[in-house]
Specification:
The chain has helices at 2-37, 40-55, 61-68. The protein is mainly alpha-helical. Helix 1 (2-37) packs antiparallel against helix 2 and helix 2 packs across helix 3 (61-68).
């Protein structure tokens, strides 16, 4: 049973950075659009998501939600 749980832990470690990279890539795209549209709230949220990725922190869920759902 330990080998199975180790597999899942290793899998989580591999997928977490990919998810972060995806959110950061999206944040850069949203930042560009938000700047063009003058959407100051979205710009601030994007900058917080990007800054969190650079410092290794976890971005706020509200900021991630705004960034990931911006184009919907």
């Amino acid at each position: 049973m330990n080998s199975m749980s180790s597999h899942f832990v290793a899998r989580e470690r591999l997928t977490a950075p990919l998810a972060d990279k995806s959110a950061v890539d999206t944040a850069w795209l949203v930042l560009e659009a938000a700047l063009d549209l003058g959407d100051e709230l979205a710009v601030a949220a994007c900058r917080r998501v990007i800054d969190a990725s650079l410092t290794g922190a976890v971005p706020a869920p509200d900021d991630l939600h705004l960034v990931l759902d911006y184009f919907r």
